[in-house]
Amino acid sequence: MRRAAPFVGLSNNPGPGLRLRQARIEAGFDSVRAFAHAIELNATTVAQHENGLRAMLPEAATEYARRLNVTPAWLLFGPSQPIGVCRIVGTVSDSTVTLLSEPEHVSLEAPGVDGNYDILDIKDASIEPYACKGDLVYYRRPQPLASFGKSIDDEYCVVFLTTGAVVVRRVLVQSNKVVTLLWTSRDGVQRMANAAVLRISPVEWVRKRRSVPHADAEAQPAAA
Question: Which residues pair with 98 in a beta bridge?
């Protein structure tokens, strides 16, 4: 599962490589080898990105960002990231999504290089510590489960179920159509249930209530 690293305190080092190294350490990965193993990438490639010996492409920055609780744009360009118009499409209470009849268009920091995200507004503590009340969860347009396969195992995802319900929960992929949903009930008990999936999208960024000040608000990326 992705680890929630504190975005606060990351200094403005020049270059993607130094920012990658800093974010890796903040996320609890003491070595390049441990981080590379966690994201199933070649350790030499990660080391070359950190050392500036290989250019970091947007695809690599996106994968690193998902695991390190930072944004692809921060890795590539530093703290000066563009403000874009984003869509808040729903709210989350008790891990369940209520979709808005009309999306709310707001100006927020763009978490990726293309900005093609939908956003959910967290209204309670049901998915803490991953995301807290007041945080915003960013995800891309959902796709069939088969598009992701095992790559989203143990990740928090926005899950569109065949029943019509939409939930935000950690998942384990069982087949091209079924996942096991993992969550903690209000009495603190760890629970799981198999569910048939219509579409799914892994959470890519969590914009925290308190973190690094940026323009109109404070921002932090997603967890693990």
Answer: 91
Q: Does 1.10.260.40 match the CATH number of domain 16-79?
A: yes
Nearest CA among 51, 53, 127, 117 for reference residue 84: 117
0.70 exceeded by the pTM?
no
**CB atoms closer than 10 angstroms to residue 181:** 20
Q: How confident is the model at residue 2 (pLDDT cuts 50, 70, 90)?
A: very low
Where is 56: in which H helix or E strand? none
* pLDDT over 80 (residue 14): no
Name the residue ranges covered by the structural domains of the chain: 16-79, 83-141, 145-203
CB atoms within 10 A of CB 186: 8
Task: Report how far residue 91's alpha carbon sits from residue 81's, in angstroms, rounded to the nearest whole number.
Answer: 25
